[in-house]
Amino acid sequence: MAVLLREAIGGSLRRVRTARRRTLRDVSRRARVSLGYLSEVERGRQEPSSELLAAICEALDITLPDLLTEAAATMWDSMAAVDVGVRPIGLRQMSLRLAGAEGLATPGQERPAAPVAGVRAAA
Which of 10, 61, 115, 122 suits a disulfide with 44, CB 3.0-4.6 Å? Predict the structure, then answer.
């Protein structure tokens, strides 16, 4: 099963915190969040707000985009391990649009234009 966003964010926060040799108590004080809640966030049991994430990142001296990038990489790795056929979102959406059309085209191959209901073809 793929990793949830809250689990990926929590794992990334814990990795950063432990790599910087910081305690939960220290980070919770600097971020002004309860120790128990921060622990729940790190374990992926609570989904923090963007404001709370920003405060935790500031307490850890990292940027929010860096945290989210690491979390996204964690999620991508977990998905790739589960489903070998994972494709980027744009390609998945293209496949969904094509799935309902007759005469599916392969990538790079044009498919015939489908008539649009209520529109007459130009003479």
Answer: 10
